[in-house]
Amino acid sequence: MTRGAKTFSLILCLLLAVSLTKAAELSAKVTYVAGKSVYIDAGINSGISVDDEVVIRENEAIIARLKVLFVSSSNASLEILEGNVKVGDTVIIHIEEEAEQIPETYTTETILEKDQVDRDTQRDKPANPMEKANRLDGKIALQYRYQDDLSETNYDVTEPSLLVRTEVENLLGTHHTLNIRLRMRRTSRDYGETEGIVDEWSNRIYEISLSRDADGVPYHYEFGRIRSNRLAGMGAVDGILAEMVAPADISVGVFAGSQPEWKTSNVNFEETKAGLFASKEAGSWESHRLEGTVAVAGKYIGGEINREFVYEQVQYSLGRAISLYQSAEWSINRGWREEVSSSMFELSNILLNARWKPVDWLRVEAGYDNRTLFRTWDTRETPDSLFDDAIRTGYRAGMTLELPMRTRLYARGGLRTREGDSQNTTTWSTGITQSDLLYTGIRARVQASFYENKFSTGYQPSIALSRNITATLWLTTEAGLSSHDYSAVDETATYNWARVGMNLSLSRSLYASGYYEGYRGNGADTNRIMVEMGYRL
Quick one: pLDDT at residue 152? Predict the structure, then answer.
């Protein structure tokens, strides 16, 4: 080999080594947001791991930071550390990949051959059914809550709990996933001198399920307590779900089972459920994506019809510019339901949501819903004068402005009407957030909300400050006022409140969190404390 060829090979090897140690960057879409929890459409298969920290950017500016809590093969749940997150936002993930040792015998040809093999292996994964077998995610935590009532009622509460949430992926190398989510809790309530201290145990199993949902497999199934977006409107099902992926990305499936007891979450075979569904997915989040589901389902008590209905939902997104969502339910009236209804099919509810982002600094949202109470087996004989079947209609609108210096201003409003009501219900809220107040790293939020209905009016202003004190410690403090005027009984309840919280990562797996809340005023005089110590699996 000539000196020039050797030099070229050495440079190529060095470039390869640098590229292997550089942080890879990928993006994922936010598919669901609930409070501080965020879900994205990327997981282990994309290289995401628990405790990864990710960001959301707009025009190279970071507007939100998140931390990965749980990861499955193709999805992940995250906690918002700072910033506001919306469905459809793009999450930027940086993945540090370990450098591979490059043998001295590597030549240009072998490097190119290795690169081709790596691409083929990645495309055909999982090549080895035992790869990453029994991957364990989740957490086990001890939690303690205490309420100290300083009023004359002296209604104190003590509540220690054990929380378990685990997910075992590729169980025994079979590409099955085992999910377990439960809570063991002991609640002690002090009712004062009249009843004394009353202890109550509450051991709830929220989910135990075994599922197979591997990529490239034409059929999926799940046993146990099932919670699936395919079963919207049905709630949890203790039973089985089977789904087959047909050509053109169309899935069809069936499910059957029972309704868990709502108060204790215990298995309850008194109420059963069953149904059929079909869904379609097309496109990508980066350009345009369309998802749709149609289901026919029924709920039955003791063999009698409780409710039967048709459900459909459609979601469309055009990049980050437009997001549209629509869902509806039609009640099917057979048997006793036909006797108390005027038609075979009745539209029981419809929901519309839209989001438009014409420019980077403006986002506009709007929503509409129209719902009617429907009779069930328990209310089949309730007189019309007592069974309120009035149509409830709601309208919502909002706007968010992205201002300079990482400042965000938002406003929301809502109107709800009901047939026969003399007064509508109105709500509104507005606020401003600053992600780096005066370049101190402090995140600040000031907001206010107001509501009015036929029974009461109220307003709630508040302010919050939070900051990472160290790389592992996050502190937050909030304070506000709450005032409610109850016109029906001619009373007013006004109180101040304050909250101090913290999150501390003791190690990669061990963490601690907690908060203190205090309420003072004529509507409340209470202290509350929560402490949690957990271990991420």
Answer: 82
